[in-house]
Amino acid sequence: MIGVDEVGRGCLAGPLLVVAARAKSELPLALKDSKLLSRKQREKILDLLSISCEWGEGWVKCSEIDKLGLSKALALGGRRALESLGAKSDDEIILDGKFNYVPKKFRNSQAIIKADNSIPIVSAASIIAKVTRDCYMVELAKRHPLYDFENHVGYGTKAHMLALKRRGALKYVHRLTFAPIANL
Predict the structure, then answer these.
(1) How many Cα atoms occupy the beta-carbon half-sphere of 130 within 13 Å?
(2) Fewest CB within 10 angstroms: 56, 66, 108, 171, which?
(3) Residue 90 is inside which H or E element, if any?
């Protein structure tokens, strides 16, 4: 079974990341949705997952999201993640959410609401995606320290909106077609 989850869908900055994960051995106990874990807990679990899982990453840049729109960007990220993992058309694939965005060639796929909290391999994908993208945003913060990316990781927080109003959007970092940024 392959679990698929994404992170960064609702962000104003940074890429979208879709992760497709498959267990190589027994998964750690008590896996759950990454949003229900602290940063420290997620990072500790990722160390365990690096032993028990293999995964593929499907990164989608802001410029691609702006060009394609969010639904097609998710589909692109899902395709990239599954290809990176080496998924086969007959693999069983479970996605978190209500929208099945993997290519039709994967005939045995389904989206399940809250799968990231009920199906361990989807929880694993959720944690891998969150930790990986958060690390990317921390690195981005080093290049753009005035935007506080290491804290809000691209979401439209009060601090992020204030930075945008003061400094403007960064062309290759922000999603220029998203309403809060387009309206500035």
Answers:
(1) 23
(2) 171
(3) none
pLDDT tens, residue order, the chain (184 aa): 999 999 999 999 999 999 999 999 999 888 999 999 999 999 999 999 999 999 999 999 999 999 999 999 999 999 999 999 999 999 999 999 999 999 999 999 999 999 999 999 999 999 999 999 999 999 999 999 999 999 999 999 999 999 999 999 999 999 999 999 998 8
- Report which DSSP code applies to 174: B
Alpha-carbon dihedral sign for residues 166, 156, 55, 82: negative
Helix (H, G, I), strand (E, B) or coil at 106: coil
- Who's near 167: CB < 8 A, 6+ residues apart? 146, 147
Domain boundaries, the chain: 2-182
E strands present in the chain:
2-7, 16-23, 53-60, 93-96, 109-112
* CATH class, 2-182 region: alpha beta
Residue 27 has which token pair? 């998964």
* Cα 20 from Cα 3, distance rounded (Å): 6
In this prediction the pTM is 0.95
Q: Which of 76, 102, 131, 147 is nearest to 2 (CA)?
A: 102
